[in-house]
Amino acid sequence: MSFAAGVLLGVVCFDILPEIISQLKNSDLQPTVVMISLVAGFLLFHFLEKTILIHHAHESDYAEHRHPQVGVLSATALAGHSFMDGVGIGLGFQVSLATGLLVTLAVISHDFTDGMNTVTLMLMHKNSEKKAKIYLFLDSITPLLGATSTLFFKLPPHFLTIYLGFFAGFLLYIGASDILPEAHSSHSSMKLIGLTFLGVLFIFLITRIV
């Protein structure tokens, strides 16, 4: 999880933001519009996380409400979130091959935690192991469905630039405010911090190659 947080930060800083800057040079779109989109992406996911029970880091806050339907609702929310991750992958490929590949890597990195959360939430709320596996499978295929959906539409360049800003805010929140604190929730160590640095360095080197 620490490494994944570094990957997300690296993708935002070394691929998405440079791509946005490059596109702004060739358009009349104001940088403020893109930054508003970035903040909107950050705050929207913050709102969703705090109002929908989708992360096991907050189990103790609602431990008294362990009902199967709560687990199903939370797992379904995660599947919907994963579908939008897939849309992000598809739109990344509409920008460029390199952006698409790096967004894919970022999504895969944090979707591992979504898979763990899906199973944890289902079992914690007294759902069967079989049902948990069904929702884990759903969470695993929804990114593919989201990416496939982008084959049926193409966004104009201006909208793609704005969407990249939104997705950058989305990834920043997941990496810095969700995955990283969760990775350090039980204990913190120089090894975990080093893995985050390694994730950032890994993406920096990858962006120099592609």
Q: How would you portray this structure in words?
A:
With 210 residues, this protein is mostly helical. The protein has one domain. It is 80% helix and 0% strand. The protein is built from seven helices and no strands. It has helices at 2-25, 31-51, 68-95, 97-124, 129-149, 157-183, 190-209. Helix 1 (2-25) packs antiparallel against helix 6 (157-183) and helix 4 (97-124) packs antiparallel against helix 5. The longest helix is centred in the middle third of the chain and has 28 residues, at 68-95. The protein is globular. Residues 54-64 have low confidence and may be disordered.
What layout of secondary structure does this protein have?
Elements: H1 2-25, H2 31-51, H3 68-95, H4 97-124, H5 129-149, H6 157-183, H7 190-209
Summarize the helix and strand pattern as letters: HHHHHHH
Rg from alpha-carbon coordinates = 17 Å
* Percent range for β-strand residues: under 5%
| Number of domain units | 1
Oligomer: single chain
Low-confidence runs: 54-64
Largest sheet: none
Category by helix and strand content:
mainly alpha
Instruction: Compute the number of strand runs.
Output: 0
Overall geometry: globular
Mean pLDDT, all residues: 84
How much helix is in the residues?
Answer: over 70%
In DSSP terms (H or I, runs of 4 or more residues), the helix count works out at: 7
Q: What is the CA–CA distance across the termini?
A: 24 Å
Concise account of the structure shown:
The chain contains 7 helices and no strands. By secondary structure, the protein is mainly α. The protein has one domain.
